[in-house]
């Protein structure tokens, strides 16, 4: 399987851009020629150019300027992928530049693995598996951060229904009421991250076998599994989702859990648990848990503050 280290992603993405260098020709305008003639349904996002043909685009000063900008954006993203804070900050900049264009946020999900890869191939690039993987990987982080940026700007972003759909689908490996999947979470959590056993008085020295035999962790597991299923299934109903976050914090209020852990619960602990159960999480599912986790943490910290408890 092709490597996905940040350095490898940068290396392969940058190498594939040799067919579309910055400042040499009209490669950016060529992207719009490819994009708007191959996918004409997207012309609606470019007011006044809805009926442009290929020749109109080629003669257009507007698309020359837009092309220069998007080409530079892509080169910057490729060259900064190994510096995550800069990469993520630049994603926000890209969204800021597009905020008044009314672009369907779902398009950012497929921009690199569909539109950009297709454009490079139209320029004669014979993309290797490593290069395709690099653009897919870069695109996943780009979409994740871009949707977050759009949300912060109060603009349409990856729909709540999509997040719900992908999160719920990924829970197929841990259904409610069928087996000891909740207890299995604690087995994974407390053996993989034993430093967190301190939050479970009397179980600080439990082994994996102790957890499996524990009625206490059977009950706790049933509860947390149900909590997660409810959160996933109510994400598209924000008032209910936020109210349930408060309920989850209320259930945990006497356990002295470090509030910082709620920030990473879904990205780190829950996603890791699902993978330990055999789930192969795709980019949409990872992004969905990340987005769900952002709202969960936001509301949970607010709930802890209201209860007069430590919060982050």
UniProtKB/TrEMBL annotation:
Keyword Transmembrane in annotation: no
Domain Globin: residue ranges: 3-151, 157-305
MF term (GO), any: oxygen carrier activity
Keyword Transport part of the UniProt annotation: yes
A Pfam family annotated for this UniProt entry: Globin
Alphabetically ordered keywords of this record: Heme, Iron, Metal-binding, Oxygen transport, Transport
Family: Belongs to the globin family.
Name assigned to this protein: Globin domain-containing protein
Record organism: Cylicostephanus goldi (Nematode worm)
């Amino acid at each position: 399987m092709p490597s996905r280290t940040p350095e490898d992603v940068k290396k392969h993405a940058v190498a594939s851009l040799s067919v579309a260098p910055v400042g040499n020709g009209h490669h950016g305008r060529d992207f719009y020629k490819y994009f708007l003639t191959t996918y004409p349904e997207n012309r609606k996002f470019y007011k006044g150019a809805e009926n442009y043909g290929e020749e109109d685009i080629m003669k257009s000063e507007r698309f020359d300027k837009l092309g220069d900008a998007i080409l530079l954006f892509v080169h910057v993203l490729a060259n900064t992928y190994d510096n995550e804070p800069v990469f993520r900050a630049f994603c926000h900049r890209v969204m800021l530049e597009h905020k008044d264009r009314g672009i369907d946020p779902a398009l950012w999900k497929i921009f690199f693995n569909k539109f950009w890869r297709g454009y490079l191939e139209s320029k004669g690039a014979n993309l290797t598996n490593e290069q395709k993987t690099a653009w897919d990987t870069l695109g996943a982080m780009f979409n994740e951060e871009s949707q977050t940026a759009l949300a912060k700007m109060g603009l349409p972003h990856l729909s709540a229904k999509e997040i719900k759909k992908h999160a719920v689908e990924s829970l197929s490996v841990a259904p409610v009421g069928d087996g000891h999947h909740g207890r299995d979470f604690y087995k994974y959590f407390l053996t993989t991250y034993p430093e967190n056993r301190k939050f479970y008085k009397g179980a600080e020295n439990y082994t994996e076998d102790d957890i499996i035999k524990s009625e206490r962790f059977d009950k706790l597991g049933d509860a947390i599994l149900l909590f997660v299923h409810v959160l996933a299934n109510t994400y598209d109903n924000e008032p209910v989702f936020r109210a349930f976050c408060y309920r989850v914090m209320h259930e945990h209020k006497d356990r002295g859990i470090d509030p910082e852990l709620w920030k990473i619960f879904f990205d780190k602990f829950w996603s890791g648990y699902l993978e330990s159960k055999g789930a192969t999480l795709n980019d949409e599912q990872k992004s969905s848990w990340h987005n769900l986790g952002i709202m969960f943490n936001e509301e949970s910290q607010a709930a802890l503050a209201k209860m007069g408890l430590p919060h982050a």
